[in-house]
Structures are given as C-alpha cells and as structure tokens.
Specification:
Helices cover 42% and strands 16% of the residues. The protein has helices at residues 2-22, 50-64, 86-96, 109-122, 151-165, 179-194, 213-221, 233-245, 286-299, 305-324, 328-336; strands spanning 37-43, 73-79, 103-105, 126-128, 144-146, 171-176, 201-205, 226-229, 252-254, 276-279, 340-342, 345-347, 360-365, 368-371. The strands form 3 sheets. It has a 7-stranded mixed sheet, with helices on one face. The protein has a 5-stranded parallel sheet with strand order 2-1-3-4-5, sandwiched between helices. A two-stranded antiparallel sheet has the order 11-12. The chain has 2 domains: 2-148 and 287-347, Response regulator (Rossmann fold), CATH 3.40.50.2300; 151-281 and 360-371, Response regulator (Rossmann fold, 3-Layer(aba) Sandwich), CATH 3.40.50. The protein has 11 helices and 14 strands. It is globular. By secondary structure, it is an alpha/beta fold. Helix 2 packs parallel to helix 10, helix 3 packs parallel to helix 4 (109-122) and helix 10 (305-324) crosses helix 11 (328-336).
C-alpha cells in the first residue's frame, strides 16, 4: 500500500503527459480571431495576490496602449492549490481549454517542473517569475524561460559579498525542509566548494518549529561569524526574531524568497533590520520608482519581489506577442533574443532560458530595502 501511494504521483504524471501527447493536435495557435488575447498565470494558492496584481497591472497598461492589434490582452489565472498534480492539470487547462498564447508561473520549483513538462509537450512558452530552481534549465526545454536569478546565480552574489568582500569564512547556512529551501542551500554549498572556500555549517529545522534555541546554540558554539537563511519567510522571520532576542549580532544574509510579500507584511520588515538580501539592481531607477508608486496607489501597499518579477514577466510576454504575433514558435524566438529593461533591471536570456547576469544585493534599513554598492 505504501509503495502504491509513492508510485501514484508518478503514474498520474505519465498518464497526464500521454494525454497531452495524444491531443497535441487539438491545440491551435491563437490567430487573433477571438475577442481577447489570453495569457495564463499560475499561482501557488488562491489567496496569493502579489503575482496577480503585478501581472494585472502589466495587462492593464498594455491595454491602455491598444492591446494587440486593437484587441485587449486577457489575464487568465489558475491556482495550483490542492493535491499533488493540480498544477499540471491547471496548466493543461490553460493550454487546451483557454488556448492561452503563453504561460507564466509564480510558484515553487516542484510545480515549475510539472508546468515545464506541459510546456514541452504543448510547445507553448512557460516563463517562470518566481521559482529559482537551477535544474529547471537543465532539461534544455526551448519553451522555458526564467526572469528571476536562479540559486546558482544567487549563490555567486552571496559568496562574492561574504567571502571575498567581507572576508567572512566561518558561515552557517540555515534551511527548513521545503524543496526550494533545501535546493537553494545545496546550490550555495556546491558553489562554495567550487570557489575553494571553507565549507559552511549546515543546519536544518522543521517549518512548524517555534523554538530555535538549539540552532542558535549551535551557531554560538561554533563561533559562527555570518549566517545565511534559505528558509521560507515565516520560519526565517521567527528565527531572526529569536536571534535578536538572544543578542546574536552576526551579519545575516538571505535569498529574495525571504521577501515574499504574500507571506510577510510590510510591518514584518522591521525585524529584517540590517539583513542583506538578493533583490533587484534597479530599485533606485526611475522605472522602478514609477512602478512602485502606481502599484501602491492601486493596491495599497509597496510591491515586493513577487509583484515586481510578475510585472516584468508579463511585460516580457506582452512585448513578445506585440512584436511577433500569437504563433508559439515566433513568441519563443522573440524571447530568445529579447533585450528588455524591466523594473527589476535589464533582462535577457542565455541559451537555456536563464536570466543572464549576477543579481544585486540590498540591505533592509528602517524597513526599507537599500541597494548595496557593487
């Protein structure tokens, strides 16, 4: 029985992909004959609002400029909330039932792999606007793109700041047991070894844990000089609060996942005091300022990275459709060579669909992210 439970997800995925393979001819390239030009958005759960707001804002601005050949763009949102495999079914629904021109995802890495399988079979572009899993590009699916820095790129930026600039060698990396968190930690450790740096102390916790005294004791006992957090925002926030209560003053670093605005509030950022995180290198620019101001006016809060990457990702797809039409292959070809200046900085892709460049770092001061000098 236990073996059957373990194998059921695999059987489901195989059956789903066979279904897609059999019915691939049923998918037609949108030809503009409909009333709208549809783009699909996959979000992790129904109450995850940030990505929808970012994408919605991009759609609205594009429609104010005439849409595509006079027809409005339409955002079609699907939640991946539910049992394993729901994400695949929703991606298939967007491709077949809604016949969207392209798919964008703002969700975790495991679901991104499922959507990537659907994209490979349906030959429709899938643009990831949140998952930083570096293995997504290893399948070399030409329909896959990502507008966020992957875990390897984030690791390079952290290593440069911590080991090279600050000369900190005694590091502790702390993660929960979430798939994305552990993968981010593993990517950092791998990059650390390649760079020839001292192996960090690796510490793990259950995300339901409310007491981090044991982990803090280990950090203190090992005379750690710097801490990197790869956990989800809620657990990381509790750990930060308890580090502050224990008066642990070592510098703390983390990935952009710690800033997920669907998981933490603007008020929570006050606990991130002086914490250094991966984020956009364009926050001081006029384009980001205009985006932030309009977003706050519309939705009542300052946009975080989920909204910003979603806004950029949707604009990339809109730009591709406006310049190449609704044909799947033409959209893919256009994105492959795109040079786009987004609110998160310049965006272009390598041959595997990864966003090119090294991400920037910023520090939280008085609840406000402030860019660090390179």
């Amino acid at each position: 029985m236990r073996l059957l439970k373990l194998l059921l997800p695999t059987y489901f995925l195989i059956a789903l992909l066979v279904f897609i393979g059999q019915d691939i001819k049923a998918i037609q390239n949108p030809d503009g004959s409909g009333k709208t030009v549809k783009i699909g958005l996959l979000i992790p759960y129904k109450n995850a609002m940030a990505a929808g707001h970012g994408a919605e804002m991009a759609i609205r601005k594009a429609n104010e400029k005439g849409g595509y050949n006079g027809k409005p763009f339409q955002l079609v949102v699907r939640s991946m909330e539910g049992p394993w495999g729901t994400g695949s079914k929703q991606a298939v629904s967007l491709a077949f039932d809604e016949n969207v021109c392209a798919l964008m995802g703002s969700h975790d890495g495991r679901n991104a792999h499922l959507v990537e399988q659907v994209a490979a079979k349906t030959r429709k572009v899938f643009l990831s606007a949140w998952a930083s899993d570096p293995t997504l590009s290893l399948a070399f699916v030409p329909w896959y793109f990502s507008c966020v820095p992957n875990d390897y790129q984030q690791a390079d930026a952290l290593i440069e700041e911590i080991y090279t600039k600050r000369k900190i060698t005694k590091i502790a990396v702390v993660s929960d047991n979430d798939y994305d968190s552990k993968l981010a930690l593993e990517s950092f450790v791998k990059k650390t070894k390649i760079a020839g740096n001292t192996d960090p102390l690796q510490l793990f916790y259950d995300n339901l844990n409310q007491n981090f005294n044991a982990i803090i004791d280990q950090i203190d006992k090992a005379d750690i000089k710097g801490i990197i957090l790869f956990g989800q925002p809620n657990g990381s926030l509790r750990l930060i609060q308890q580090l502050q209560q224990r008066k642990i003053k070592q510098p703390i670093f983390g990935s952009f996942a710690l800033l997920d605005e669907d998981e933490i509030s603007d008020q929570d950022l006050k606990y991130y005091k002086n914490i250094i995180l991966i984020y956009s290198d364009n926050r001081a620019g006029s384009k980001y300022s205009a985006f932030s101001e309009e977003f706050k006016k519309t939705y009542g809060r300052i946009p975080g990275p989920v909204a910003a990457y979603s806004f950029d990702g949707m604009n990339l797809l809109i730009e591709a459709i406006k310049n190449s039409g609704t044909d799947r292959e033409k959209i893919q070809n256009y994105l492959s060579g795109i040079h786009y200046e987004g609110v998160t900085g310049p965006i272009q892709f390598d041959e595997r669909g990864n966003r090119m460049g090294t991400p920037h770092l910023m520090e939280i001061k008085n609840g406000i992210p402030v860019s660090l000098e390179r």
